[in-house]
Amino acid sequence: MCLKVIFWQLSGQQPLGRLEGIMNNLELFNQIKLNANYFSVEDSGQRNTLSKQVQPVHKTNNTAQMITEYNRQTLFEIKNSKGIADIEDIDIAVLNEFAARIDKYLDKYAPQQADLKKYILLISTYLTFIAKKPLHPVGLEFEGGEQIIIQDNKFYCPAKNRNLLDELSVCRYCVSKDISAIGENRYTGL
């Protein structure tokens, strides 16, 4: 399933109209914002039942709660944003590849949950291509006690390099760098 089909289904509007080429991030943001109306911020806390089932690399029991809250805050941000400051080009083929990976992942781990799939795709697309924020919240702890951190306005993830080769992974699109990129002088947490 490609991104244009999912966004078209949500909004009832015409699809983006092309599977390749370039679009700008404002055009994508407008589609995301339009489709965000399909979801309620109040109900978004119930949408992440997936997180409890498929986050085995995370250490703490509050992982699902952290991810749910992060996604809820992201939906709120989308709905309340007035636009974006810097216009940039986005390769539609990359966007569709990203969407296809999320689609496959959710087909495997959340079959028959069409609304959850649409919600996760919307949130993830916004975080990756518009907000340029990590797909998981800062402070999320992984096995070994390492966390996603922010240092010098850059995001670092302890699981990025481990997951890059997984065929369902979207880590390659995430703004976070692997935590090894900051060397020995790193700290954990916020």
What are the main properties of this structure?
44% helix, 190 residues, two-stranded antiparallel sheet, mainly alpha, globular
Task: Indicate the topology.
Elements: H1 3-11, E1 22-24, H2 25-36, H3 49-53, H4 63-80, E2 89-91, H5 92-109, H6 114-131, E3 149-151, E4 154-157, H7 160-163, E5 177-178
Parallel strand pairs: 4-5
Antiparallel strand pairs: 1-2, 3-4
Helix pairs in contact: 2-6, 4-6, 5-6
Task: Give structural notes.
- This protein has 190 residues and is mostly helical.
- Helices cover 44% and strands 8% of the residues.
- It is built from 7 helices and 5 strands.
- It has a 3-stranded mixed β-sheet, with no helix packed on it. Strands 1-2 form a two-stranded antiparallel sheet.
- The chain is globular.
What percentage of residues falls in helices of 4 or more residues? 40-55%
What value does the Rg take, in angstroms?
16 Å
Side-by-side strand order of the widest sheet: 3-4-5
Beta-strand percentage range: 5-15%
Structural class: mainly alpha
Principal-axis shape equals globular
List the total number of helices: 7
Element pattern in H and E: HEHHHEHHEEHE
Task: Give unreliable regions as ranges.
Answer: 49-59
The whole-number mean of residue pLDDT values reads: 83
Count the strands?
5
Largest sheet, described in full? Answer: 3 strands, mixed
